[in-house]
Amino acid sequence: MVTHWPKNKFQYTSTAGLYELAGGCRGEYISHISASPYPSGIPVTVTHPLPFHFQPIFTVNLILGKPYQPITIPGGVLINEPIAGGTVSGSAINGTILGGFAHPPVYNNGTLQVPVIDVYGVSDDGESFYIHETGIGTQAAQVTRIELTIGGAKYKSLREGYILASVNANANRTAVAVQGFLVVNTLA
Length: 188
Description:
The chain is mostly beta strands. It contains one helix and 15 strands; from the N terminus they run E-E-E-E-E-E-E-E-E-E-E-E-E-H-E-E. Strands 4-7-8-11-12-13-14-15 form an eight-stranded antiparallel β-barrel. Strands 5-6-9-10 form a four-stranded antiparallel beta sheet, with no helix packed on it. 24% of the residues are buried.
């Protein structure tokens, strides 16, 4: 538990914890925040749990083609990798990845990667889709946001929801696994 005393004389107390996504991406979260105008925390204390949780919705497996020659950019290089195909499977969508491109900038002597992945495909029920994914991490594992464009009423939550993902490449960078999580508002 951490207590903060900002200039406005209100006491803010937060309870924090740790989370870990697939692939070893870790971080901290705040689970409760209390505010009081008095150092003792009395008589006013309001506590709120986080208003969301992560719902696993799909796994994407991508087959990478041979990367092209890296392009030098300020502070690093831009990697260009064709995506030869793959699959998406899970409770929210199933289908085939027909192709795409990964083009992550890599900075700080290869220790920081900003993944950018664009793929297209067809769901098992015939809907065309496009996925745009961006984030941050190492070359081995990243945390990203996915924007999924797809028709059909059944996919509304994917179009309108906030999707976080954990991205992990295999050791020789010929395949990538993406675990997608829908951020669900528990107050709605």
